[in-house]
Amino acid sequence: MNDRLQVRRPTIAAVAASAGVSKATVSRFFNHEELLTPDIAARVKKAITELDYAPSPMAQALSRGRSRLIGLIVADITNPYSVAVLRGAEKACQEGGYLVMLFNLGNAIGREREAIDALAGYQVDGFILNTLGRGAGVMEALERNGKPAVLVDRRHSGMTADFVALDSAGAMVAACNHLVENGYRELMYVTEPKKGVSSRRERATAFNKFSSSHATRVAGQVFEYSEESGSLLEDAIRALIARAGSAKDGRRAAVISGNAVVTLRIASIAAQCNWKFGADVGFLGFDDPEWAPLIGPGLSAIAQPTDAIGRTAATCLIDRLHGEQAPPRQILLPGQLVVRGSSDTRVGRD
Amino acid sequence: MNDRLQVRRPTIAAVAASAGVSKATVSRFFNHEELLTPDIAARVKKAITELDYAPSPMAQALSRGRSRLIGLIVADITNPYSVAVLRGAEKACQEGGYLVMLFNLGNAIGREREAIDALAGYQVDGFILNTLGRGAGVMEALERNGKPAVLVDRRHSGMTADFVALDSAGAMVAACNHLVENGYRELMYVTEPKKGVSSRRERATAFNKFSSSHATRVAGQVFEYSEESGSLLEDAIRALIARAGSAKDGRRAAVISGNAVVTLRIASIAAQCNWKFGADVGFLGFDDPEWAPLIGPGLSAIAQPTDAIGRTAATCLIDRLHGEQAPPRQILLPGQLVVRGSSDTRVGRD
DNA sequence: TTGTACGCGTTATCAA
DNA sequence: TTGATAACGCGTACAA
Fold this sequence. Notes:
The structure is a homodimer of 350-residue chains. Chain A is an alpha/beta fold and 350 residues long. Helices cover 43% and strands 18% of the residues of chain A. Chain A has helices at residues 12-19, 23-31, 38-51, 57-64, 80-95, 112-121, 138-145, 168-181, 198-213, 230-246, 260-273, 306-321; strands at 69-74, 99-104, 126-130, 149-152, 162-166, 184-191, 219-224, 252-257, 282-286, 300-303, 330-333, 336-338. At the A-B interface, α4, α5, β2, α6 and α7 of A face α4, α5, β2, α6 and α7 of B.
């Protein structure tokens, strides 16, 4: 036995020889069995099971031009949101008979083109993109390779492709309304640098729109947080609380976080400063990480339907691969407001 | 129906024609440029850049039998540990010029074979496996496909392959010693069902070994936690605390968690019961999730070098692909003990 | 040094 | 209904 050097899987030729038919017939058994005589089909089937044969997807891809592969490009696999979406997408892909090829940008902007070309080289049938904002050459690379794509969470300006994301505007309005109803009047929205990231921009815009249209009762402010500006954030929240406290009508202050990364940072600051969420300062964050219930009185959150987002993106893409010709869709999925102690003024008052 | 505009990438034939040479010459330009006349090489290069040609990795794979693809099979992509490892591995793969094909089992045992075969169909050159315990047919599938594999975190019994993981035994000893030094004497190790998962078994074994060899001073107990037995865990911890409290020498109770999932559950129970970590009950958990510092006085942890584990696994595999013939290696990476308030008796005493 | 021809494992187009 | 045979895009003995 020389299976020690290299184990070759049986080929279609081997099956054909074993069944005493041509390769074409074996191929038909898989792709057009209806054209086969029962007798012949049985013989082929026997040979297939005997040899434990399975067609090589690679060779199929080369021949057909389709690979049943989907390229998934993600800006930063560290981001729990991305992983959650990835999970839903990968699941739907598997169910649809597709395999996922993953490319992580590691937040390295400008590698998008490279990623697309690399995956296109493997004949992926389409792309799911959860990447950065300034898609320099992204669209060009997509066009050049002639592959459809679905954008998740972040849309590229000037790119006409299917787009799946949280309904950020709707979620923001729900968040703000909830806070206002609970007596919070001094609001601050903390976001990572907006740059070209559409979801961040849209949330900030929705926040500004809300606060300006409720200007008589509510004061709103946007804070751009980045790693370097850590202490500035603490000062800003402190000022916010002070502003609320000094107002004669007992306005309450609340912070809205743009995502889980920011939430973590704010929770950390609050722990240091010994602020009580809900009482000293209200809080509500986009994303609902598993640990949200464990911080203080529990952190209120906008839970994103990450699994559905990933799943929708994948099925959306697969539909296109199956010939769907509809114009680019914009699918916005609703978030779910999860109310916990951090946005409830009754908590911690006692 | 085939009127869909398929954008074809330029082929080697097109380059050859454009440069006025044969396909073989173009192929040599990429693989054996040293054999080429400078004159010809220049012409080929010109044609390549003009046409923006890049070889098709798929066709190369079919022809060579190697694909520069690595199959990564993970038991559960929901698990942050798996994701962290995945991240390190994917990075190292990219740096080595390999792409990752991801297959998530979604904890569906028995799909390992299926996953291996699916990925092998795409000619992946090797596997990184972070899967379940009872690898029924896993080894057989691997052998049948003749591909090397590296095991991460979980080793399969009777499988001779490279293995990369945390030094569980060493970490457990460090954890226990730390707790004992801080006055904790009633110890309980909480793990998910051990079943066939080697890392869980090894940690439990190390714990038992420690407590039996320190039996004069320390009492140790292992608790198997599963979703269904949630309330049992609360009772067990309560009993542990009671045992410690009733002892006249003021022994202190501490819980060790086997991973982040269990840690979350314990933290949740502690919040409900209003236990103060460090004072009422000590705590130390395997894995150091980002939120560990935020719970109570901060949760002590064994931080796993997940990035290094992933990276090591990948390079290990790539070495093999490059012809490395050494016998199966067992690479155990040290964890890092991160001490926070939950294992410090001074905290919360006031 | 370069070109020819064949193989890699399939599918698809013809004839038969 | 079935079977040769030519793609698919590339690597590589072998010949020139």
